[in-house]
Amino acid sequence: MKPKKDKKFWLALVIFSLTGQIAWVVENMYFNVFIYKMFNASAEAISAMVAASAVAATVTTLIIGALSDKVGKRKIFICGGYIVWGVTIWSFSLIRMDVINTLFPSVASAAAVGVSLTIILDCVMTFFGSSANDACFNAWLTDVSDDTNRGSIEGINAMMPLVAILAVFGGFMSFDLNKAESWTTIFNIIGIAVIAIGVLGIFLIKDSTVKTEENQNYFANIFYGFRPGVVKSNVTLYLTLLAVAVFNISIQIFMPYLILYYTETLKMDDYVLIFAPAIVVAAVFTGIYGGVYDRKGFRSAIVPTLILLMVGYVGLYFFRSKLPVFIFSLIMMCGYLGSGAILGAKVRTHTPENKSGMFQGLRICAQVLIPGVIGPAIGAKILANADKVIGDDGTAAFIPNENIFLGALIAAVFIWFVVIPLSRKKENAHAQ
User: Fold this and answer.
1) Are the C-beta atoms of residues 178 and 34 closer than 8 Å to each other?
2) Residue 341 near residue 163, CB atoms below 8 Å
3) What span, in angstroms and rounded, lies between the C-alpha atoms of 207 and 72?
4) What is the CATH number of the domain that holds 82?
5) Has residue 217 been placed in a domain?
6) How many CB atoms lie within 10 A of CB 353?
7) What confidence tens digit (pLDDT) does each residue in 73-113 have?
8) Measuring CA to CA, which residue among 289, 426, 421, 408 is closest to residue 350?
């Protein structure tokens, strides 16, 4: 039994998880809005950006996760990575039409250059963010958790995306996102905050002890999780990763277009005030619900949250007025975060000890790469014939519709084909 966690650990868990998720929320939900508002990006361009970022995140996590295992340290990658991550976020403040027109005066379309620069810098930012957060922070959490606290730790970790959404929504309320100077201020604030947390982590994080084998082949370790023998020895882990992949495909069908759906389709300019209470409730629910996995196991924990997720999809597909949209958004978010927490805890439970860094790349394949390529592409296909609106400059912009939730619901049905056989496997079989 590992010693009880001290206050420093819980503080480090909260602030690093929260700050990382704030940065990811800005990327996953607001970069789409950024290139839509500033450069009139199409659904296909948004899908391409999400896919490129997913590929960058996966390759980075494979490389850096294995490297942190070989080095036997996580802290230096976490703290140093957060600092550089913040610098790259700040760099987005330079992607403006006035800067583009100055640097590229002869280009036919400054907007197209803006979209391309955003996608390229997004991949650079993702490299450092995934190194620090996806590869090493998550490996560190796996290192320092055990069967007595893994669900609780993952519950807190999994609630942070919603807390981050609340923080970002609230923080963005005072900004006019149609103005370039608003985005400049946003990127400055987020960038500086991430840098500061990286510095603070030097004093907060206690490095985990990773037992490293002598004469390891680093390049072989990068692909360790893809070896047939490793798959055969860890069947439950790979089934769980398959469930994670299908689950996140469902999420990514609608998530890149969610804010645009609220603002452009439902015309809810006050969506922050409407959904802030839903986010708070869902975040608290997720933080508490993680303990169900510790007490009752995977089956009892995952079934209710998946049902909540699907009920939320159904409601958002059929209703468009404020009150029911609020209610079903709350239900959907509770299902989304709750299911994510339980699946994440299951992955940590079955990750081989002292090899967590090597398996972070596989986790990102399931959580980011496969869903990030497939999900937004399905969403873009669904919206191919969506209504268009003509802007003041004569360009056409698409209007997301409720069919993205129907697509997400259909994808969610397939999760059960993995979760049901996974639920029948003996709990904690890998640990035993």
Assistant:
1) no
2) no
3) 9
4) 1.20.1250.20
5) yes
6) 10
7) 889 999 999 999 999 999 998 888 888 888 887 776 788 88
8) 426
